[in-house]
């Protein structure tokens, strides 16, 4: 099986249930009001097998704790300019963290080491003024300068045609992928068939 699969930016109950049935490992909910995938009300279904990931951008600790409690979140994904000390304080409160880093050039990886030991995963995404969900890919070769120790999710513009590149991508700390806008019929609504076909292809089945 391919490493971890996270599907991000889900909003609607039946859609969540059907995506979870594809065997994905993590499902992300975006609690950032400026995102077109903002989850503004509790869906009628939340994942029971896939881990629940709450995505936040420069959010207060108080609100993060409130959402964690309300949605029973397994991971908190920090997608803004959150400092290492802020991550430490969330970790000390018992939260499991995924810290996102926006990558467009080698120097963007310099900030990463300050977060070592504070996060369960890093998520390397494409730099965009909207913080995430750009649908654009960055140069994955830049990640060969990253030498751990935190495992990472690869993100940013992954699409149904990324299978070959993903199967060829090799890195000792590569833990999985995060998919989002390239698998949507509308913001926040995922195309289950597109995801299903993609996962079959990724795992080596022909479709
Ligand atoms: O998806 C959003 O709208 C979003 C907005 C603000 C912060 C984070 C956001 N998404 C977080 C993710 O983990 C996305 O999956 C990631 O940015 C990749 O998205 P895409 O390029 O669309 O595959």
From TrEMBL:
Can you provide one Gene Ontology molecular function annotated for this UniProt record?
phosphoribosylanthranilate isomerase activity
Q: Which reaction does it catalyse?
A: N-(5-phospho-beta-D-ribosyl)anthranilate = 1-(2-carboxyphenylamino)-1-deoxy-D-ribulose 5-phosphate
Give the pathway listed in the UniProt entry for this protein. Amino-acid biosynthesis; L-tryptophan biosynthesis; L-tryptophan from chorismate: step 3/5
List keywords of the entry alphabetically: Amino-acid biosynthesis, Aromatic amino acid biosynthesis, Isomerase, Tryptophan biosynthesis
Origin: domain of life: Bacteria
Q: Name one Pfam family in it.
A: PRAI
**What EC number(s) are associated with this protein in UniProt?**
5.3.1.24
Q: Which GO terms describe its biological process?
A: L-tryptophan biosynthetic process
Q: Which residues form the N-(5'phosphoribosyl) anthranilate isomerase (PRAI) domain?
A: 6-200
Tell me the CDD domains matching this sequence: PRAI (cd00405)
Q: Which family does it belong to?
A: Belongs to the TrpF family.
Q: What is this protein called?
A: N-(5'-phosphoribosyl)anthranilate isomerase
């Amino acid at each position: 099986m391919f490493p971890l699969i996270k599907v991000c930016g889900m909003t609607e109950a039946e859609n969540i249930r059907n995506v979870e049935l594809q065997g994905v490992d993590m499902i992300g909910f975006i609690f950032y009001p400026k995102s077109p995938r903002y989850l503004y009300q509790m869906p009628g279904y939340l994942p029971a097998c896939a881990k629940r990931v709450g995505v936040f951008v420069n959010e207060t600790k108080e609100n993060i704790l409130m959402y964690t409690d309300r949605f029973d979140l397994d991971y908190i994904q920090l997608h803004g300019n959150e400092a290492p000390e802020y991550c430490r304080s969330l970790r000390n409160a018992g939260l499991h963290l995924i810290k996102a880093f926006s990558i467009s050039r080698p120097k963007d990886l310099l900030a990463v080491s300050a977060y070592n030991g504070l996060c369960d995963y890093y998520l390397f995404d494409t730099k965009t003024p909207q913080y995430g969900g750009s649908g654009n890919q960055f140069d994955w070769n830049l990640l060969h300068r990253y030498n751990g120790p935190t495992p990472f999710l690869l993100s940013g513009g992954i699409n149904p045609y990324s299978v070959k590149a993903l199967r060829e991508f090799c890195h000792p700390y590569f833990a999985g992928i995060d998919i989002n806008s390239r698998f949507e019929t509308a913001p926040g609504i995922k195309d289950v068939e597109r995801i299903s076909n993609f996962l079959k292809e990724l795992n080596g089945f022909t479709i």
